[in-house]
Amino acid sequence: MSTAVTSAPARFGIARTVRLGLRRIGFELRQYFRAGDQVFFTFLFPTLMYVVFATIFTGDIGEGPDKISMATYYLPGLIAGGILLSGVQGPALEIAMEKSDGTLKRLGGTPISPVTYFIGKIGEVFVTAILQIALLIAVAVIVYGVELPTDPAAWGRFAWIFALGLIACTLLGIALSAVPRSGKSSAAVVIPIVLLIQFVSGVYIAFSMLPEWLQNAAGVLPVKWIAQGMRSVFLPDSFRTAETSGAWDIGLIAVMLLVWLVAGLVLSRITFRWIRRDG
Predict the structure, then answer these.
(1) For the purposes of burial, counting CB atoms within 10 Å of the CB of 173, is it exposed (0-12), middle (13-18) or buried (19 or more)?
(2) Hey, is 189 helix, strand or coil?
(3) DSSP per residue over 2-69, as a string?
(4) Residue 9: is its pLDDT beyond 70?
(5) Looking at the predicted structure, is the pLDDT value of residue 6 above 80?
């Protein structure tokens, strides 16, 4: 009897929580790719927007050996936009719908913990975001002849900006899922917020072109720092003078993304419920 009592908590410990979370990743991926509209608006949307911008805005930007095509110039911003769509919009819409159709209520009646659920969502986001960005970069290289960085340090910087930015955005997406009052209204709430953030964060237009007051307001948003970090990877070093401070500010990028990661973790744990408080 004593053995049974002492062994029971172990089945619900950290190891089991993580194991169940990893198993949920496959389930979440199957659900994701079965939803055709979600695949279009979150998975393919950055690539489609990149094709539109790279096709309409042709020519070169910059001078001398640092001259690059407009297709190269728009690539970092659309990568940052893809991270935002995968991390914020995807989970926010999914969780709002699952809360509305009773999926989360049923999960709440099982031994599964929110941490296990979060692991499944974050794992799904990482897999889909990697595939999404790989597709975007492949189109840039094959269709528009974009030359990728050859410096291993640049790709190392790409990796940690991608990872930190995606985790922070995913946690913020989980928190944002608590805002819509129903699954039907989730798209009307989430999509305009995500689009607005993209436009004021330097995804579609240069951040320096925004009014000063808007730069000050949007300068704290995580996507602004993800986009700036991606520009430091894909653009010539001379383009750093176009940034607000005249530098890439790599250290500050890391600090800001870590701050948003912690904020997202706190907000997601505070706001997440298996059912709405007023449901």
Answers:
(1) buried
(2) helix
(3) HHHHHHHHHHTSHHHHHHHHHHHHHHHHHHHHH-HHHIIIIIIHHHHHHHHHHHHS-SEESSGGG-EE
(4) no
(5) no
Alpha helices in the chain (DSSP H): 2-11, 14-34, 36-38, 45-56, 70-84, 90-100, 103-108, 114-144, 152-176, 183-200, 212-218, 222-234, 250-271
Query: What does the pLDDT look like over 72-107, one tens digit per residue?
Result: 999 999 999 999 998 998 889 888 888 877 778 787
Distance CA 253, CA 273 (A): 31
pLDDT of residue 5: 39
| Residue 2 banded pLDDT, cuts 50, 70, 90 | very low
Question: Quick check: 91 and 145 in contact, CB under 8 A?
Answer: no
Cα torsion angle, 124, 130, 132, 133, sign: positive
**Pairing between strand 68-69 and 60-61?**
antiparallel
Distance, in Å, from the CA atom of 279 to the CA atom of 234, rounded to the nearest integer, reads: 47
Could you give the percent of the chain with pLDDT greater than 90?
Answer: 41
Q: What angle do CA 223, 228, 229 make, to 5 degrees?
A: 95
**Euclidean distance between CA atoms 109 and 41, whole angstroms:** 32
DSSP letter at 239 equals G
Note the pLDDT of residue 12.
54
Q: Tokens 């940690």 correspond to what residue?
A: 160
Q: What is the pLDDT of residues 248-257, one digit of tens each?
A: 999 999 999 9
Structure tokens at 251: 């250290």
